[in-house]
Design a protein that fits this description.
about 600 residues; alpha+beta; 4-stranded antiparallel beta sheet; 15 strands; about 15% strand; binds manganese (II) ion
Amino acid sequence: MSSIVLDSSINLTLPEWLQKCLNSSSANDRKQGETTLIRQAFEFAYELHQNQYRKSGEPYICHPIAVAGLLREFGGSAAMIAAGFLHDVVEDTDITIDEIEQHFGVEVRQLVEGVTKLSKLNFKSKTESQAENFRRMFLAMAQDIRVIVVKLADRLHNMRTLQHLPEEKRRRIALETREIFAPLANRLGMWRVKSELEDLAFKYLEPDAYEQILQYAAENQITRQQRLTTSMETLRQRLQQAEIECLEISERSKHLYSIYQRILLPQKDYQEIYDLAVLRIIVKTHEECYRALAVVHDIFRPIPGRFQDYIGLPKPNNYQSLHTVVVSSTGKLLEVQIRTLEMDYLAEYGITAYWRLTHSLNSCALPNQYNQQKLSEFAWLNEIVACNDEICDASEYMRSIKNDLTMEEIYVFTPKGDLISLPSKSTPVDFAYKIHTNVGNRLAKVKINGEDANEITMLTTGDTVEILTDSNAEPKLGWVKQVATNKAKNAIRRWYKYQYKSESKSKLLKEYPTPIVSLGFICVDRIGILKDIIEKFYRYEINVQAVYVETNTNGIAKINVSIESGDAEKLNECIREVSRISDVLDFRVV
Ligand code: MN
C-alpha cells in the first residue's frame, strides 16, 4: 500500500493506472517488484517536486506523471516508467544522480542521466550548451537506446503543453523539435510520435498555414471518404474472391505537416496534394501482401514509378509495407499501402512496438529482423556519435547532427553483392570511406554498374559500386564540398590537416611583438568559412583591421586576417577556437 499521503489542498487527479499501482497488492513476485519500483519512483518524485509549479499553474508533478504515462503507453519497462517519474528531479531539485542510483539502481540511473541537462552556468553561449547536451544525449543513447524514448516522451508532453510558454521560448522549442526530435522519432520508426511532434511544431512555427490546412483537411475528409466507398467495396469483394483474408481496409489521412511539406515542393499539383487518399489493407502473411497487390493492380491502373516494395527492402528504421499509387474508380489518384498486422504495428510504434508485442503476443510471432540485437544496431547513431569527437565547434556540430538526422537513405551494392546503406546524394567517395578510411584515401578509379565513372557521381539505390585503389593516390580536397557523409568529410580534412601539420603552432603562445598581427589560415574553400572565422574574433572582441582572401582551383582558400593583438592570452584562446572549425586546416603568423 502507498506510504505517502497526497496533499489534498492541491488539485491533482492521478490517472487510473497509477492509482491501481499505488493500491495494488499484486499476484506474482516479478509483477510485485515492478509495481514497487514504479510506486517508489512516483512517491520520490512527488515529494521532491512538491511546491513546484508549471507555467500553466498545475503542480509540477503532473508533467512527470504524464511522461511516465506515455512511456507506459509505449510499452516501456518498469525501469523506464520509473525514469519517467524521475527524469526532472536531478535538474530541478537538490537530488544527485548518485542518490537516484542508490534508491533505484543503475538501470534507472542511466536512463535519467541520459536526459538530464548540464547546468547552464558552465557555457559561454546557448549554442554551446545545446551542443554539449546533445553530445551527452547521443552518447547515452549509444549505450542504451531507451534513453531517447524517455526523452521523446518528455518532449511530446512539453509540446502538448507548449501554449503556456512565452512566444520566443515556444518557437525555440518547436524548432528544436522539428529539426532534431521528430527526425529522431522517425529514425526509430515511431511514426505516431513523429507526426504528432511535427504537427505541434507546425502549429507554433507557421500558425497561419497550420490553421488553413487544418480547415481544408477537415472539409476535404468527408468528400474523400464518400468517394472512396466504391473503391473500398470493389477491393473487398475482389480480395475475397481471390481468397485473401483481409483483416482491415481503412482510409488514412496524411498528417498536416506532411501536406504542408508537399505544398512547398516545386511543381506541385494542389489537387493531387489535397485529394490524394491513402487506403491501407492489412492481411495476414507476407505472401498475401503480394497477392493483394496483384489484385489492386488488376482492378485499378497503377501509376508508373510509384510502386515501392519496402517488404523486400525495408527502410533503415525497419518500416515494411508495399506502396503503390493507382487510378481509383472515380478517376482520382489513390495510394494503397499493403502490410501485415505486425508490420502495421511496427510502422506506428517503431522500436517500442517490439516491447508492446513481447508483452501482448507470443514473441515467436515476431519476424526475425525485430529481435533485440537488430534494434541495437543503429548505423546512423554510430555516425552521430563519431561526430562527437570529430567536430569541436558547437554550431558546426548542431548543423551536422541535424543534417545527419534528416537525410534520406539509399542502398547500393558492393561487387560481391553486399548491401550498403548511405545517405541520399552520396558519391563513390562516401562509399569508399564507408568501407574503410584507407580505401577512401587511396581511391584511384571508380566503376558504377561495371562502367568507369567519376568519383563524385551521385549514387542511386540499386547501383553496384566498385572502388579501385592505388597506393599513390590521394584524396582531393575539393571532395569535401561534394561528399554527403560526415565520415568522408572528416577523413579528407584529417588527411589534409596531417599534410599541413606545420611548425608554426608553438609561435602563437609567445608574446606578440607588434600591436598588429597578421594571421594566415589555410581552409577548405566553402561559402561561409570567412564568416565563421571572423565571427570568432568578434565573439572575443578582437578588432579585425583587414582581411585578404586568396582562393585557388584545388579547393583551398588562404585567408589572411590582420588584427590588433592586445591581450595575448585572449588572442591565443580565440585562435584555438578558430582552428577547431573543421574546415580550417592550418594557420601561421605571417
Ligand atoms: Mn521534463
